[in-house]
């Protein structure tokens, strides 16, 4: 039984390796993105968590089709106790830079912007009941939305180290 | 880099929508100057005004104020009702109340949202002190003359670090308007004003100038205040 499933796994790995082999389509896509001015390097590290200058973070799923979005720990601290979170509607189509919701703390409502275009696949409904959770684990359990993307994010994004430097400048 | 805080005072009693339009156009000027654009960022602005009677609800209440409640708030057409995108809950603005809306980029002045609300509060307390009114902050936001008497309310909005909305400070507001609502969602609290505190005869405009100076003095990189001329203001009013 065990040996059979490992064979299946091996076969699966083979097929997925085959999919990753450069195809004419992938090549075309590569050429298209390469023509655009690049502000950062997207390569093997593109799956790591990235940050925007407006203090959102995004992280791609293993297959790169869905991005999880939230607000950074720095932002959660800077806002203070969060009393209300406005979440987007599931299935809403969003464009890069659109406001998809808001985080409200001490009488201030801050918009949450999405750095990726796509469709809202899932929202963290638990936050509606317990908005204060965003102060506890904003970069983990208290994510805001998952977005099925239509392409890679094109705007300026920072790695964790770059973002840390950016917030220390402030 | 030294900057000048542009003060736009809308004279007389203006509808909420006039200030809202001006505020929106300033916010979009700031937003369009953000990267990748190379356009220079506009200087920090502050709008001061006195509104015709209007109840505004906060962002988290949008869609929750029933038609009957709205009807009640409108007081037979004497007041307006508007849903605002700001933080905080339902409040009232009207003649005799100073409304001040700073439109600034928090990053330019190295402020977090929390610092910013604190700066608005400190400037309010200093303004009250200038007129001999002792005011303070409590566990609730806003500025109070006692733990139960609120003299100023705060409700702000931020997009990409650009602020909008701001404060309402009661100078000679008819406090009857507040008796009709649970202001800012706080039961058992009262609203007070300069007049109720015994400071009479102060105009909203002069208190506004004082408040703007207090803000300017606390904003990093801001060295001076520059008031918009009559011509510029009437252009905003017509827009």
From TrEMBL, chain A:
Modified residue annotations for N6-lipoyllysine: 107
Stored Pfam families: GCV_H (PF01597)
Record SUPFAM superfamilies: Single hybrid motif (SSF51230)
GO annotation, cellular component aspect: glycine cleavage complex; mitochondrion
Positions of transmembrane segments: none
Keyword Manganese found: no
InterPro entries referenced in this protein's UniProt entry, alphabetically: 2-oxoA_DH_lipoyl-BS, Biotin_lipoyl, GCV_H, GCV_H/Fam206, GCV_H_sub, Single_hybrid_motif
Domain Lipoyl-binding, residue spans: 66-148
Note accompanying the cofactor annotation: Binds 1 lipoyl cofactor covalently.
Cellular compartments annotated: Mitochondrion
Keyword annotations of the record: Lipoyl, Mitochondrion, Transit peptide
Biological process according to GO: glycine decarboxylation via glycine cleavage system; protein lipoylation
Cofactor list: (R)-lipoate
HAMAP family: GcvH (MF_00272)
Function: The H protein shuttles the methylamine group of glycine from the P protein to the T protein.
Subunit and interaction comment: The glycine cleavage system is composed of four proteins: P, T, L and H.
Entry similarity comment: Belongs to the GcvH family.
UniProt protein name: Glycine cleavage system H protein
Organism: Didymella heteroderae
Lineage of producing organism: Eukaryota, Fungi, Dikarya, Ascomycota, Pezizomycotina
The encoding gene: GCV3
UniProtKB/TrEMBL annotation, chain B:
Domain of life according to the entry: Eukaryota
Class of the enzyme per the UniProt entry, highest EC level: transferase
GO biological process: one example: protein lipoylation
GO molecular function ontology, one term from the record: lipoyl(octanoyl) transferase activity
Pathway the protein takes part in: Protein modification; protein lipoylation via endogenous pathway; protein N(6)-(lipoyl)lysine from octanoyl-[acyl-carrier-protein]: step 1/2
Keyword Glycoprotein listed: no
Active site residues according to the UniProt entry: 184 (acyl-thioester intermediate)
PROSITE patterns per UniProt: BPL_LPL_CATALYTIC (PS51733), LIPB (PS01313)
SUPFAM superfamilies according to UniProt: Class II aaRS and biotin synthetases
Residue(s) at site: Lowers pKa of active site Cys: 150
BPL/LPL catalytic domain: residues covered: 40-239
InterPro entries referenced in this protein's UniProt entry, alphabetically: aa-tRNA-synth_II/BPL/LPL (IPR045864), BPL_LPL_catalytic (IPR004143), Octanoyltransferase (IPR000544), Octanoyltransferase_CS (IPR020605)
UniProt-listed Enzyme Commission number(s): 2.3.1.181
Record key words, sorted: Acyltransferase, Transferase
Binding site for substrate: 86-93, 153-155, 166-168
Reaction(s) this enzyme catalyzes, per UniProt: octanoyl-[ACP] + L-lysyl-[protein] = N(6)-octanoyl-L-lysyl-[protein] + holo-[ACP] + H(+)
The family this protein is said to belong to: Belongs to the LipB family.
Function, in words: Catalyzes the transfer of endogenously produced octanoic acid from octanoyl-acyl-carrier-protein onto the lipoyl domains of lipoate-dependent enzymes. Lipoyl-ACP can also act as a substrate although octanoyl-ACP is likely to be the physiological substrate.
The name this protein goes by in its record: Octanoyltransferase
Species in which this protein is naturally found: Didymella heteroderae
